[in-house]
Amino acid sequence: MGDAPDAIVVGSGPNGLAAAVTLADAGLRVHVYEGAAAPGGGARTEELTLPGFRHDVCSAAHPLALASPFFRRFNLQSRGVRILEPDVQFAHPLDGGRAGYVVRSVDETADALGADAAAYRRWCARSVHNADDVVETVLSNLRRPPRHPLRVAGFGLAALQPASLMARHFGTDEARGLLAGVAAHSMLKLSRPPSGAVALLLTTLGHSVGWPVIEGGSSNLIAAMVRAIEDAGGAVVTDQWVTSLDELPPSRAVLLDITPRSLLDLGGDRLSSAYRRALRNFRYGAGVCKVDFALSAPVPWTAEPCLRAGTVHLGGTFEEVAQSEDDVASGRHPERPYVLVVQAGVVDPTRAPAGQHTLWTYCHVPAGSTIDMSARIEAQIERFAPGFRDLVLAKAVRTAAQEEEHNPNYPGGDIASGAQTLWQTFARPALRWNPYRTGIPGVYLCSASTPPGAGVHGRCGELAAQTALREVFGA
Q1: pLDDT tens digits for range 385-430
Q2: Predicted local confidence at residue 1, as pLDDT
Q3: How far is CA 334 from the centre of its chain?
Q4: C-alpha angle 358-356-217 in degrees, rounded to nearest 5
Q5: Which fold has domain 83-213+286-406?
Q6: Same fold, 7-43+218-282+419-471 and 83-213+286-406
Q7: Residues 305, 292: Cα–Cα separation, whole Å
């Protein structure tokens, strides 16, 4: 691998690669070590069902990648990554062929909600108007006041509410369903904050930057990052699990795209007793059961907006989605689960052979679940798209337990690498001024278990790398 590296990154998910890109941009030689056969972590794309059907392994729709300050500087489009945006950003079908749906225009979205049009505008229009400031604040280390506090004050006050309290502002099933669908991305009970913050942020992104997919799959985003590292003289090494910091070659800095659980194993007694205790107390959230389908034709949704949507949230009314998330939080497997669906083929015909489609789905389950939820997921899709089962050519299932087997950054199947509670929004992975320091000189944590948390935005890696640049390299 040539000359010794200035810095080493362990883990090649979006955050690990963002850390490596940030260090390489500062003129450093960076080596990245990845245990899996291919880089990318949850942002990989594989033929999981049949030849020619390309499925995103975890992340599929990418509003945060478009909004993130890191990716805006990285400029994916200039590096050959094609961003494809559907006409409908996301939709939420209801029984009887009805649906709430979000398009880029706030007014068009609001008008389709009828009696809730004015309430919808009041709820999100200000955040959409100040979207850049909201995103800059949310995708920060959350340790300093916003640069423009008045512009984000409305978002901050609203975001402290749980989704169940926000739902009181709406009277129609369509508006309340839309709210439930985005709030459930928090993987929390909808009666708990910050489920409302997640709902408002994701809706704001739907209007401000959209919910696009990457042409050919999320792995093309990863490939662009790997090229940037290699073009700067660095290297990305796969099929090499790191089980101890002592296994790494000498370097001035080490950045770890791993969970607190893995950090305990790698750091051992080199970590302080207080920090080890905090890492052991770090809480992980619910798991997911993921099911990928190869289809002979598009999903025959009854509600027309769903036919044009890149992302569809299933679960019925607000109350039904809330009950599903309550079941998961109580350790039960919902009979009618909340299901997140991404149908990339709406805008990306490269994902499957001509005329055919891939379908990406998951539902929430108790952590560590070994239950195959595919029949319940299929039933929810069939509920809103009669005839769906007749289109299934093949499917691939990963239970929550299998998710962890494939990616140790998903303990118990938790794809957020830590419960997204209000406390852990700030104390992630521990309550300290700089959350990226581990206490071991030159060793930093840069995973989604640090602020600002889950999502393909690269900011955990970038912010950790900036800390290393200041403290180790004097940049």
Answers
A1: 999 999 999 999 999 999 999 999 999 999 999 999 999 999 999 9
A2: 52
A3: 22
A4: 40
A5: Polyamine Oxidase; Chain A, domain 2 (3.90.660)
A6: no
A7: 22
Domain boundaries, the chain: 7-43+218-282+419-471, 83-213+286-406
User: Packing angle between helix 260-267 and helix 273-281, nearest 10 degrees?
Assistant: 150
For the CA atoms of 147, 150, 151, 155, the dihedral, rounded to the nearest 10 degrees, stands at 110
What is the amino acid identity at position 336? R
Alpha carbon distance 44, 41 (integer Å): 6
Q: Over pLDDT 70: what percentage of the chain? A: 100
Secondary structure class of 93 (helix, strand, coil): strand
Measured in residues, the chain has a length of: 475
Map tokens 């108790």 to a residue: 366
Q: What are the pLDDT digits (tens) for 192-215?
A: 999 999 999 999 999 999 999 999
- DSSP single-letter state for residue 5: P
Give the tens place of pLDDT for each residue, 43-71.
999 999 999 999 999 999 999 999 999 99
Q: Contact 351/219 with Cβ under 8 angstroms?
A: no
Strand, helix or coil at 77?
helix
If you average pLDDT over residues 103-116, what whole number do you get?
98
What class is the 7-43+218-282+419-471 domain?
A: alpha beta
333-358 confidence digits (pLDDT tens): 999 999 999 999 999 999 999 999 99
Give the closest residue to 201 by CA, choosing from 148, 133, 301: 133
Q: Tokens in use for 346?
A: 């709406």
Terminal CA-to-CA distance of the chain, rounded, Å?
A: 25
| More confident: 145 or 1 | 145
Peptide bond into 452 cis (omega under 30): yes
